[in-house]
């Protein structure tokens, strides 16, 4: 029986570098899959890596999202398949251990400290009603 995957990395495949027809998403997926596989047991969870036609980060190609069950989701932009693979792998290692997926920008590796486009809380997070919010 195969492992189930609770973590996913999605790469935009339609992002283009400004002024060119170059779409780096497919190259990034290939390089990221290889690097995650080479990391082996250094990443304690399986990550499904796939592409999607658009994540609306067109001004910041290439965009990459990290998702996990009951975890915050991250969207990163300005990712270069030639220079940023190690940062993406290190974040996968870190993200796998984060119970709720939440981390500060200073805790993210390398370029990912400054290239975060969004951090979306888990949809499982709910506020308990209190008197303050009841009115």
TrEMBL record:
CDD domains, sorted: TRX_Fd_family
Protein name: DUF1636 domain-containing protein
Organism: Cognatishimia coralii
Superkingdom classification of source: Bacteria
A Pfam entry, by short name: DUF1636
InterPro entries hit by this protein: DUF1636
Gene3D superfamilies: Glutaredoxin
Record lineage: Bacteria, Pseudomonadati, Pseudomonadota, Alphaproteobacteria, Rhodobacterales
């Amino acid at each position: 029986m195969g492992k189930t995957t609770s973590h996913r990395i999605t790469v935009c495949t339609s992002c283009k570098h400004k002024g060119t027809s170059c779409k780096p998403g497919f190259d990034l997926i290939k390089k990221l899959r290889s690097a995650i596989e080479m990391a082996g047991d250094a990443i304690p969870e399986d990550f499904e890596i796939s592409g999607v036609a658009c994540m609306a980060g067109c001004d910041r190609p290439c965009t990459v999202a990290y998702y996990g069950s009951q975890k915050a989701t991250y969207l990163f932009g300005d990712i270069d398949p030639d220079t940023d693979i190690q940062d993406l792998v290190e974040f996968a290692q870190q993200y796998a251990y984060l119970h709720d997926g939440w981390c500060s920008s200073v805790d993210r590796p390398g370029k990912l400290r400054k290239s975060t486009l969004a951090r979306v809380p888990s949809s499982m997070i709910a506020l308990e009603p209190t008197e303050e919010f009841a009115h």
